[in-house]
Design a protein that fits this description.
- This protein has 145 residues and is an all-alpha fold.
- 76% of the residues lie in helices and 0% in strands.
- Helix 2 packs antiparallel against helix 5, helix 3 runs antiparallel to helix 4 and helix 4 packs antiparallel against helix 5.
- The protein is elongated and about 70 Å long.
- The N and C termini lie far apart (44 Å).
Amino acid sequence: MADVSHRPGDIRGHPDAGEMRERYTRVLQTRGVAAVEELVILAGIYAAVSAWTVHFSAAKPELAISNLIVGIALAGLGLCMSMAPERSQDLNFVVLLLGAWLIVSPWVVSRDAGSGAIISNVITGACVCLFALVAGGLLMSKRRT
């Protein structure tokens, strides 16, 4: 059997070395975006369970249902976007809209939501909006290079 490699770990002579290097560079460029999208997953899970965590599910069941649906949607979108961050720029706008909905939903869905529900939704929605903007900005800066 012929000795294919002169030194262990040296792939400079490999015919696909350029393609492997390029793929590795692309993966590293989207690594930060995937980390931000994983934060969207966590924020979505919190939004889904926040009605029971902050204890407003019995007093405002319509807001609890809204948070549950939006939280599940955010967690699903975050999961999809973290799996393929290079193709997720269009979905960042949807995440941004869902974050904005979390901010305004205490006043739209229920008249008197209570301070706990308002604070929880506003902080969670602001974090989701921030995550969407950061991920979109990272993707845009990676596409320019």
